[in-house]
Amino acid sequence: MDKKAVCLGELLIDFVSTVSGVTLKDAPGFEKAPGGAPANVAVGLAKLGIDTHFIGKVGRDAFGEFLREVLEKNGVNTRFLFSTEKAKTTLAFVSLTQEGERDFVFYRDPGADMLLDQREIGEECFQGKGVFHFGSITMTHEPAYSATMRAISLAKKYGYLLSFDPNLRPALWRDLEEARFRMRQALKSVDILKVNEEEARFLAGTSDLEQALKFLSQNFSLALIALTLGKRGCLIVHGDNRLEMEGFSVATVDTTGAGDGFVAGLLSSLYMFWEDLRERKEIPESAIAHAARRANAVGALTTTKKGAIPALPTSEEVEIFLKEHPL
Predict the structure, then answer these.
(1) 155: Cα within 13 Å, side-chain hemisphere
(2) Which domain holds residue 289?
């Protein structure tokens, strides 16, 4: 049986300012775009040729229908995307600085993604083998937190490789200490951790990045840590080995989804090594380097268009980009 990817988390609507370099208050209008970090990863993986399934919840409304259609049109299996009448589909309003960085406000009190229930997470979600990727947004409130932890447990039971991107959004948490605690609980089961510099420091509880990486390596049994460094590329920590991979210079339009594209590029590139990573077997340094470079390429390409899901590249687009940017 071919391996598959299962992604769990929020699926929402990003309303992106039609004009860059203005605050939300001054934005003259907004353009609708599908979003949500784990959903972005799911589409990214599907576009890169991986059989991908999504677990989440949307409102039984026009936006929820739109999001389901977007996933399906991009090749993501939505069998486990649930709908509810108890809350509307989550919305986020996003403004972009002239550098393409984001400022956003969430309408999520509650949002449908928060109502994912552990009773909806059945063993059938994890038939076969593969990778399970999740984030922390579904950990902010019950019942979605318990649903996320059940999915982690089932994925581990069925021999999945576990991938976690905290995607820290402080404004969505009632208590940041609770956020750190819940994320660390999840980390006990994780194989691949993707973080940016802020998230690494947050998880470790230190302002020193080097100490943060040391803390994460020593306190959790991680097969691989992928630290994204924005335009500078990434740092991969694999056992006692470290690999720095320079980023690509592109004309940035919108950084939304760049980290999610990076995750999709990394996981798809390591497809042949999912079992080895789960079992903590040695991975060739050349394979790690190839995965890091391809992940950087996917992330960079994602920034060249507005929105996340519409900007995620196909395998063909990635290969063309890499040929145009040789080492």
Answers:
(1) 27
(2) 4-322
